[in-house]
Amino acid sequence: MTDKSKKNIDTKPIKDLAKLLDELNLTEISYSDKEFSVSVSKSINVNALPQSNVSSSSENPGVDDNTNNDYQNDPRAITSPMVGTVYLQPEPGANKFINVGDDVKSGQTLLIIEAMKTMNPIESSLQGKVTKILVENEQAVEFGQPLVLVE
């Protein structure tokens, strides 16, 4: 006797999304309608990504080139716990959460990462002085990417 409460899962939409994920070079994709919802994501080795062309500027004096490789295993680095978009201030026009030279405490909000339309505060796991901000406002980040250096 078969259990009619069990539902067979149609894997075709999942496979189609996975194929689209690769074709569009995305790390995450979701689809939903009234009866069905699915999300597909893949992890990326941050060291395998091409180097971003981030340059230092007077607006972000702590932004540095080659951040993925230079600070990947640095014990001073606060890294991204997710894929998303970085926001350095709580809302447009507001003061930044932190600036280079600021003293931060463990648990203090350093920035926000938006992932799947959810704003996620990223808190410091270290206590000390901010020596470098390795990302720019509204920059896309990957899981494990160094964001801020705290000494």
Task: Write a concise keyword list for the protein shown above.
151 residues; mainly beta; OB fold (Dihydrolipoamide Acetyltransferase, E2P); 2 domains; 4-stranded antiparallel beta sheet; 10 strands; 11% helix; 30% strand; elongated
Characterization of this structure:
The chain has a four-stranded antiparallel β-sheet, with no helix packed on it. Strands 7-6-4-9 form a four-stranded antiparallel β-sheet, with no helix packed on it. The protein has two helices and ten strands; from the N terminus they run H-E-E-H-E-E-E-E-E-E-E-E. It has two domains: 12-41, no CATH class; 49-150, Beta Barrel (OB fold (Dihydrolipoamide Acetyltransferase, E2P)). It is elongated and about 55 Å long. It is mainly beta. Helix content is 11%, strand content 30%.
Gyration radius (Cα, Å) is 19 Å
Average of per-residue pLDDT values: 77
Structural category is mainly beta
Total separate domains: 2
Task: Give the topology string: H per helix, E per strand.
Answer: HEEHEEEEEEEE
Q: Which fold name corresponds to the CATH topology of the largest domain? A: OB fold (Dihydrolipoamide Acetyltransferase, E2P)
Distance between the termini: 65 Å
Low-confidence stretches: 45-67
Largest sheet: 4 strands, antiparallel
Total helices: the number is 2
Strand order of the largest sheet: 3-10-8-5
Shape-level CATH architecture of the largest domain: Beta Barrel
Global shape:
elongated
Question: What's the quaternary structure here?
Answer: single chain
The tally of strands reads 10
- Name the CATH superfamily classification of the largest domain: RNA polymerase II/Efflux pump adaptor protein, barrel-sandwich hybrid domain
CATH hierarchy, class of the largest domain: Mainly Beta
